[in-house]
Structure formats: structure tokens, C-alpha cells
# Entry
Amino acid sequence: MRDVLYSQYPAKGWLLMKILVLSDSHSSMRMMRRGVDLLKPDAVIHLGDYIGDAETLEEEYPNMVFHKVPGNCDSRSCS
# Structure
């Protein structure tokens, strides 16, 4: 895939960033860790449900950039 991106944008000096977007994790820590370990992203965006999962992941990967957005279950109980 990297070759495809570089062939589309041949300008020297271009930097590519790999971003992992997670949402509705609902305490699926194993899958979130697996995604980070396999993809080795430059940054992670977590879109809520549950934001505490993202905070835990952020502690486990202190050198990675994290952005967290609360989901609908983060402000109240989710049924």
C-alpha cells in the first residue's frame, strides 16, 4: 500500500501518517491492543463508548499520540 500512496503523491518531502480509529470499544481491550500492535499507528483516535478504555490504552502505549472523544454511553448509562 505504501508504494501505491507514494506513486500517487510523488512530491519529495511528503510525510504519511497512519491513524487508527476506534469506536464503541465497550471494554474490548484485547481487540484494541491487537489493532495497535498489528498496525503500529502514529496516532489513535478513540470515538467513545467507553472513553476509559482509551485512557487505559494510552497508559499502556505512552509514546503514542491519542485523541479521545466521549461517546453517547460515556455521559450516562448505556443499555
About this structure: The first strand starts at residue 19 and ends at 22. The mean pLDDT is 82.
